[in-house]
């Protein structure tokens, strides 16, 4: 037989509110916070003169505090050749966003040499924070960080729901 606990009603009510409040917040829909969130991206590579070299999907996630995570499905890379990109992002004074992410090119194959790929972004978010467009610069470096190849890209993205 259980003995009855002698807790004041106010203590029980406080404990119930402390344990139920986080669950209620966790189930509420997240409001868009500018660029913060996960995005489905369509990347178009160009030769920097506007001539299209290919299109492929990527995913980018912008986190609070200014970190950026990126992965791509660029068919020019061999399986396992390119790591996930990690980087930082920021809000520019003119209302656009900037960012830079770096991925390892883990081995030489095809048109890519072992080293790193650095992507620099200039992103314009739509007024509803549901889509954005990007003009990017892509720079490849060898393992000693000597510049190799340079390219350009544009991208459009929609927020994952």
Largest sheet: 8 strands, antiparallel, barrel
Number of domains: 1
Determine and state the CATH class. Answer: Mainly Beta
Q: How many β-strand runs?
A: 8
End-to-end separation in angstroms reads 51 Å
Strand content: over 45%
Order of helices and strands: HEEEEEEEE
Secondary-structure arrangement, i.e. CATH architecture: Beta Barrel
Mean pLDDT: 86
In helices, the fraction of residues equals 10-25%
Contiguous helical run count: 1
Q: Indicate the low-confidence ranges by residue numbers.
A: 1-5, 7-29
Radius of gyration of CA atoms, rounded to a whole number: 23 Å
Global shape: globular
Query: Would you tell me which CATH topology applies?
Result: Lipocalin
Record the strand order, biggest sheet: 1-2-3-4-5-6-7-8
Structural class: mainly beta
Q: Could you state the CATH homologous superfamily?
A: Quinohemoprotein amine dehydrogenase alpha subunit, domain 2
What does this structure look like?
By secondary structure, the chain is mostly beta strands. β2 (52-63) and β3 form a beta hairpin. It is globular. The protein has one domain (37-159): Beta Barrel (Lipocalin), CATH 2.40.128.120. The model is unreliable at 1-5 and 7-29 (pLDDT under 50). It is 11% helix and 50% strand.
Task: Write a compact overview of the structure shown.
With 161 residues, the chain is mainly beta. Helix content is 11%, strand content 50%.
């Amino acid at each position: 037989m259980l003995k009855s606990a002698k807790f004041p009603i106010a203590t029980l009510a406080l404990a119930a509110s402390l344990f139920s409040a986080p669950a209620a917040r966790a189930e509420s829909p997240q409001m868009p916070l500018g660029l913060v969130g996960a995005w489905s991206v369509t990347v178009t590579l160009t030769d920097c003169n506007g001539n299209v070299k290919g299109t492929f999907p990527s995913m980018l996630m912008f986190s609070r505090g200014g970190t950026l995570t990126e992965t791509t499905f660029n068919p020019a890379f061999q399986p396992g050749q390119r790591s996930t990109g990690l980087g930082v992002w920021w809000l520019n004074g003119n209302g656009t966003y900037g960012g830079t992410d770096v991925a390892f090119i883990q081995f030489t194959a095809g048109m890519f040499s072992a080293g790193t790929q650095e992507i620099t972004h200039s992103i314009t978010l739509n007024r509803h924070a549901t889509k954005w467009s990007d003009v990017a610069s892509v720079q490849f470096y060898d393992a000693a960080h000597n510049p190799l190849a340079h390219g350009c890209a544009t991208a459009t993205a929609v927020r994952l729901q």
